[in-house]
Design brief:
By secondary structure, this protein is α/β, with parallel strands linked by helices. The protein has twelve helices and eight strands. Helix 10 crosses helix 12.
Amino acid sequence: MKRIALAIVTISLITYGLISCVKAGNHGQILRVSDGARMTLSDIVEDLKGVRLVFVGELHDKASHHQAQLAVIRALKEAGVSVAVGLEMFRSESQTHLDQWIGGKLNEEAFQKVYYGNWSSDWALYRDIFLYARQTKIPMIGLNIPPDISRQVAGKGFSSLTPEQVGQLPEVSCRVDETYMNFIRQAFGLHGHDQGKSFIYFCEAQIVWDTAMAWHLLDFLKKNPTHTIVVLAGSGHAWKRGIPEQVTRQSDVPHRVILPEIQGRLESEAVTLEDADYLWLK
């Protein structure tokens, strides 16, 4: 009996230790780009609390990136921030379904159908984020544009859109220069791409995408002035030259950018404040 009791106590202590690590934000080291300091999520929460937008980039198929995103959402929520979550993964036209999910009016099976109507990555990668938002009543915001528009711009250019298609977008600009094209090459690992029309059209699609998502973020903040949005988006969009730059062109809303370290694209030895404020190290 003593051995059994000791085993139970040991298991309880281990479990408590694991839970404590999760609650404490033990999710690996974070590089503060401004001075190269190595920190934890707990160390940077106070800074994140002072802004209205927190961009947390991802590679869509990396479970660890989504765990980091959830950790940021949870840390801000537990710090007393009125949190919302902005989603590249959902189109703005699906906002009603997101509201129904958070309001408990759609079960998980029904919501998965909506999810796969918006996004192709495995639901399991994002499930914990959506469940946590539902459990804690955190608003979720669809940011994306109709896929037929982004595909058409990528294939034929922004000028190919009809007036009716342009009317489906918020106010967007489409100014692609060499600086922006160099950024796209770096962010998406497209080294060696030339300046042919296909690449220029791809860049136009990205900038239209980013501008529209920035507009939707700012529209939510205007209507919800006490909230801070944690923005979940691919690293190419979350990069400072992506959505954040389009936010800056439209508003002076303060923001921070957290990107994951990505070999060959964004590494601790080369990251600058033009890329991100924080780099989540492997």
